[in-house]
What does this fold into?
Amino acid sequence: MPRPGLKLGESVMKKFDIASMVGIVVGLTLILISITMEGDIAGFWTPAGVMITIGGSFSALLVSFRLDEIKTVGQVTKKVFVRQDNSILDLHARFVDLAQKARREGLLVLEDELDQIEDDFLRNGLQMVIDGFEPDNIRNILNAELSSLESRHDLGQNLYRTWGAYAPAFGMIGTLIGLILMLASLDDPSAIGPGMAIALLTTLYGSLLANLVLLPMANKLGVYSEEEIRLKEIIIEALLALQSGINPRLLQEQIKSYFSPTEKKQLEEASKSPGDDVEEVLTNV
It folds into this structure.
């Protein structure tokens, strides 16, 4: 639902997900504090261990995926921290407004709304409705787009899950390297320390990288993917209902059937807010 002051069709802003950043920062901070409470943090740093764990696991990622897929890592990472601030409440208000206009002036009047819609999926679907495509054709085309979207989302999640699986493995490889170096230098006490450091710290680096960064990021992408796919599925049904000339009030109730209890409560609170654009849309149905 548009927030107070955000009109229907207005540009939806990007939203920074502070929870992801806070989780990583707090996790690292707690670990560093724990280390400093018991010893010297400098003893937990080994460039060789970083090279083995991060460099080795990323090299394995290059073997596992195509180069053009690897190039999407930066874009995928951005989605963990910055995402489109859309919700089912926004869609509810938008489609009620569209249904009102279509009922009063016909579907062709909705062509004026296309330039105000940033979501390519919604804009393309609405264009097909305006152009008079058959409902089955609209559904098939949008479902194909949705399947393609889901595949792209799966790729991003798989990248991080695969990387998260390799990181601890290369941590163990670093441990084996460190043990070999240590055993090969038993007659030189000065070489035992560095070898033991690599042996233990690479396992630490691998576990930390996988369980605090990579795997949680893959899970967060999965949560966002499910949310976006859910919204796209609602868009398909709402567009087909709009094409059928559904009563705006009925469309409002149809979309509300997808709401969670929390979202229904938010809708009730928004509809009671004086001066809210959403209230104006709902009360004029």
